Amino acid sequence: MCLDIAFYSALQLIDNHFPELAHDGEINFDLNIGAHFMALGHNRYPVIVFQDGHYHRKYFEWGIIAEYMDTPEKIKVMRKSMVNARSEKVMDDKRSFWHRIRKTRCLIPVTGIYEHREITGWKNKVPYHITLKDRDMFCIPGLYHYNTKIPSDPETGEMRGMFTLITRAANGVMRQIHNSGSNAHRMPLFLPEAMEREWLNPHLDDMDITRILNYEMPSDQLVYDPVFSIRGRSPRPDGMPKNTHYEYAGLPVLEVC
């Protein structure tokens, strides 16, 4: 299951957190679309990279097309598995694509993420909006890639950047929320703010990368609220924003581990 990203007025927040940021490749970004941004749409999303001694905000597509995906059929089938990269693959699997691009690192700025919880006896999964405590915006580490063999737009030959979001084994509370599906018991690689900046340091060696990838955000540093729905553009019955707490009768309490 892919993550959804909450992105409320975050462009201004990005500028506040990175006042020295250079804006590259600006496009007309619709914040209403961004409020519920699904990975499998492979749409462009603002990410932060460090190049030439400066932070840059670029608009990359979510989901990497690797060079071995050399036909439209392969891209259609395989790209959906390239929206997330398992942290274990980045350093522990020397043959993996993620290990090969470990030096092209980016940050994905968000105001929160969404994930679904399966509950025994309930017909529908319950969506949760998850943020970091005392952070109005935070950044999830990722990797990016330019495919020089396959242009993103075959008609124009334009070569767009593409990114993947790094996930790791879930902490105690996220194991209870993201508890089903092929990627159950995973969560984004949440980091403290200083470590987020460190991720973009071009001088990191493999030991540094491994240390960051092994970081586990404690459960008590997450804020998690059940919400009504995250799919579709229909307004909630109570008229509140999608990321607002929704009270479910009889919802089993999550244990903070």
Biggest sheet, open or closed, and with what strands and sense?
8 strands, mixed
Question: Structural class of the secondary elements?
Answer: alpha+beta
Counting H and I runs of at least 4 residues, what is the number of helices? 8
Percentage of residues in helical conformation: 10-25%
SSE string:
EHEHEEEHEHHEEEEEHEHHE
Strand content: 25-35%
- The coarse overall form would be globular
Report what the structure shows.
It contains 8 helices and 13 strands. The protein has 257 residues and is an alpha+beta fold. The strands form 2 sheets. Strands 2, 4, 5, 6, 7, 10, 11 and 12 form an 8-stranded mixed β-sheet that branches. A 5-stranded antiparallel β-sheet has the order 3-1-8-9-13. The longest helix is centred in the N-terminal third of the chain and has 8 residues, at 10-17. The two termini are 23 Å apart.
Outline the fold blueprint.
Layout: E1 4-6, H1 10-17, E2 22-23, H2 31-34, E3 37-38, E4 44-51, E5 54-62, H3 72-78, E6 84-86, H4 87-92, H5 97-100, E7 105-110, E8 112-117, E9 126-132, E10 138-146, E11 161-169, H6 172-177, E12 186-188, H7 193-199, H8 206-213, E13 222-226
Parallel strand pairs: 2-5, 5-11, 6-11
Antiparallel strand pairs: 1-3, 1-8, 4-5, 7-10, 8-9, 9-13, 10-11, 11-12
